[in-house]
Specification:
188 residues, mainly alpha, 7 helices, 77% helix, globular
Amino acid sequence: MAEITENEHWLLSFYRQSEISGALFFGRLARSLRPGPIQQDMTRHFADEAQHARYWTDCMDELGVTPLRLPNSYQDQYVNAAGLPVNLMEVLAITQVFERRVVRQYLTHERVEGLHPVIRKTLDKTVAEEKWHLRWIDQALKDLEPKFGAEAIQKTLARFSAADQAVYAATMREHADRVESLAIHLPR
């Protein structure tokens, strides 16, 4: 018998699916980049995302449930909302916006009263690594300023932030009943 509700099961599966999507994306990207610091960090990022998917799989296993098959991930909606990134700077910018959303979501989830200890442990491990993602991408974007310009990078971040808000709003409309039942109010 599961120690979690159906909605918690769904949310953990949603997290897992998102991490798998990230791992697949960053793995393909790391393979295509020229050797250097960005390729090295992207490779670590890819490995972290795969590890996070494993953390969520292990978490659900400890809770006595198996991951649900979900039709898509949060990131799948980004291309429709923001357009396809056209260069490495745009890939990093959209990733930075998405990773901020992930960290805010996980930190919000950690504050849920009565959170199961297995879920809390998984969130703690994952958040520590997600914060590194924010740091390395922030530095990589700063390093790209001479090539793209600080203003262009800021405009790109703003464009992807607006797209993230649209994706967030659509996700909340679609899944509000699940999230609200958990007393988790996703950060805007």
